[in-house]
Amino acid sequence: MSQTSEGFRPPQQARSRASLQKVLTAAEHVLAEQGLESFTVAAVASQAGMSVGTIYRRFDGKEQLLHAVKDRLLTQLETNVRDALRSASPDLRSLFTAFVAALAQTFADHDRIFPELLDAQRSDARDRGLAALSAIQDALLEALPPDDASDVKMAARTIIGACVHRAATCRFWPDGRSWKTWAKEATEMALTYLTSPAAPPARM
């Protein structure tokens, strides 16, 4: 977990780290099942089976706890994308397909949490989110040859933006697709752009 979590006090011992993960898992559960309006330190403590005071010894309050939850999910997003790119064949189709699939799967795994976090987003949390999106974009560009980097960057930014927008609006504006189907269709659209005659030749 990043140590940028608004003064969050990172644990030093294995037992404390396990306790922290229990708190964050409980916080994710409260967000997913009850929503942002019911998200309180007391609700998280109840879900985790620990006292409110125990949580306050680690976090200053609700906002810092929310920030830590978002930080954990964004760190997972970065890790998932990098792992997928490392496992893919070193060609444009394979790498871009792996990139979009990992991005979509992470949002799918937390499809009831990301919308709540996006609703709660403040300027400092937005900066952490933008840093994560920049990191996964850079991971894709680094995995590819330097040819046509500007076009790949354009496609990646479009896919990332569409993914975040879909996560934020899926409750109110559903498209009737699963995340897996969305990833396949979004990948094909991006690859069509990257390999079209109007665009500079891209390596397949």
From TrEMBL:
A single GO molecular function term of this UniProt record: DNA-binding transcription factor activity
Pfam families recorded: TetR_N (PF00440)
SUPFAM superfamilies: Homeodomain-like
DNA-binding region: 40-59
Record-annotated HTH tetR-type domain positions: 17-77
Source species, domain of life: Bacteria
Cross-referenced InterPro entries: Homeodomain-like_sf, HTH-type_TetR-like_transc_reg, HTH_TetR
UniProt-recorded name of the protein: TetR family transcriptional regulator
Origin species: Amycolatopsis echigonensis
